[in-house]
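FAQ

Q: What does a record look like?
A: Structure on top, sequence underneath. For example:
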């Protein structure tokens, strides 16, 4: 009996020791919580915001990221409570994401500090845009356009979910995967950073923001770094240590999936470079810029989202768009915007229209020049929230681009918006080739016939 007691004690000690070792290591502190966090968060958003079947959402967006770790992670989806809980082996590293109508899903680390009853429903009506076949046939080789769509939807693992083309304000090409349509909010990942840069323009136009003013980011002022500006952060040149590899062990993964207050997490990273001198792509920069903008947007998350809708989304007709917050109420300006393909394209169109919608100036007329000016040391690749200089495309192209190959090309010289969205790893999803093929499909429009010059016509 004594021997059995010792064996049980030894096993217990090994289990406890193993747990303590794992929980304090990068594996337990970041990797496994990131795995359960992304599973809970994405399952929640893709189910309740995008309306995808959970199994399909997992197969497309989640399981390819988890790899072998996916077999250890279980998921519990409660539709009545609108929440998803994920854990390792059903016991460890539990994470819960909660859906709120019109606000989206949030990873909740402390339910006592979270208002689960907040809501701001979307109108969720039909989208009025329609395909303009006459304009397409006058401006493009329709067969070539259709062939470009065929190619970007090739069934080779790229998982394209949506593709469309808008020319001079006319929808000329559009296609969706099964179960997705023109009102389905799709995850833009880092295309959300372009939303942040655009909304900064909204505040500048309203005279509410100086993007180059020191002391404008409260979270950085609190830690003694007032010299870092919103412009530095939109340009990824804040100089903070927050490297981003999206491998589940990097600071970005820790911030997204374990931090209840992402702006606080980002602000407390070490300083590596003086602001404005070194480009380093990291999502924490944009979250800090967004947190500063929120000082002009209201007191609560409902106030902030209302302002975002009133000042940007609704004037553009972006009525199927959700920007989700973290538990603290800070909107997740770097990665968590879900919007229909047409809504993403509408934001791009704002830049083709010199920042105007009808008679209303939404962003400054020169804001395209601002976001399209290359950032120092970015090798001409990045402006402010937009990517630049894609090979084979016009030099004035600016791009909203996100993880898993979300692409929206804004091409002023061609008056084109070209979009491709999906869930792709290991390739560019065919998006740049699609954009190049669309441009190649353009043709000189046929001359208009003046019927008054034809004999017999009135």
């Amino acid at each position: 009996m004594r021997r059995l007691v010792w064996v049980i004690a030894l096993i217990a000690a090994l289990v406890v020791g193993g747990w303590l070792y794992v929980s304090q290591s990068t594996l337990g502190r970041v990797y496994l919580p990131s795995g359960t966090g992304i599973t809970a968060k994405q399952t929640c958003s893709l189910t309740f915001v995008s309306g995808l079947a959970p199994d399909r959402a997992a197969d497309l967006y989640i399981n390819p990221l988890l790899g072998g770790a996916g077999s250890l992670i279980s998921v519990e989806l409660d539709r009545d409570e609108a929440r998803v809980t994920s854990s390792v082996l059903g016991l460890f590293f539990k994470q819960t994401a909660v859906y709120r109508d019109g606000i989206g899903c949030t990873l909740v680390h402390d339910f006592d500090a979270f208002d689960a009853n907040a809501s701001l429903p979307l109108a969720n009506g039909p989208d009025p845009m329609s395909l303009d076949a006459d304009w397409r046939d006058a401006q493009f080789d329709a067969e070539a356009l259709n062939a470009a769509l065929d190619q970007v939807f090739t069934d080779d693992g790229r998982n394209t979910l949506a593709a469309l083309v808008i020319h001079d304000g006319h929808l000329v090409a559009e296609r969706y995967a099964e179960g997705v349509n023109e009102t389905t909010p799709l995850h833009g990942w880092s295309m959300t950073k372009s939303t942040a840069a655009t909304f900064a323009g909204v505040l500048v136009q309203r005279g509410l923001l100086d993007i180059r003013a020191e002391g404008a980011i409260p979270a950085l002022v609190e830690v003694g770094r007032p010299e870092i500006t919103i412009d530095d952060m939109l340009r990824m040149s804040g100089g903070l240590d927050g490297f981003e590899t999206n491998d589940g062990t990097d600071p970005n993964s820790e911030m997204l999936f374990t931090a209840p207050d992402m702006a606080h997490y980002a602000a407390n990273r070490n300083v590596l470079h003086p602001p404005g001198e070194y480009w380093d792509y990291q999502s924490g920069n944009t979250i800090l810029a967004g947190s500063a903008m929120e000082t002009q947007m209201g007191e609560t998350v409902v106030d902030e989202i209302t302002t975002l809708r009133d000042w940007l989304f609704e004037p553009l007709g972006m009525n199927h768009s959700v920007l989700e917050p973290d538990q603290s109420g800070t909107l997740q300006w770097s990665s968590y915007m879900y919007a229909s393909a047409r809504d993403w394209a509408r934001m791009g169109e704002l830049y083709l229209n010199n920042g105007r919608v009808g008679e209303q100036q939404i962003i400054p007329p020169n804001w395209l020049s601002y976001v399209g000016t290359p950032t120092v040391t970015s090798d001409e690749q990045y402006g402010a929230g937009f990517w630049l200089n894609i090979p084979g495309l016009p030099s004035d192209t600016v791009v909203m681009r996100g993880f898993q190959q979300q692409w929206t090309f804004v091409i002023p010289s061609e008056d084109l918006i070209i979009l491709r969205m999906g869930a792709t790893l290991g390739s560019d999803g065919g998006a740049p080739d699609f954009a190049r093929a669309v441009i190649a499909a353009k043709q000189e429009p046929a001359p208009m016939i003046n019927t008054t010059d034809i004999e017999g016509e009135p």
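Q: Is there anything notable about this one?
A: Residues 26-49 form the longest helix (24 residues).
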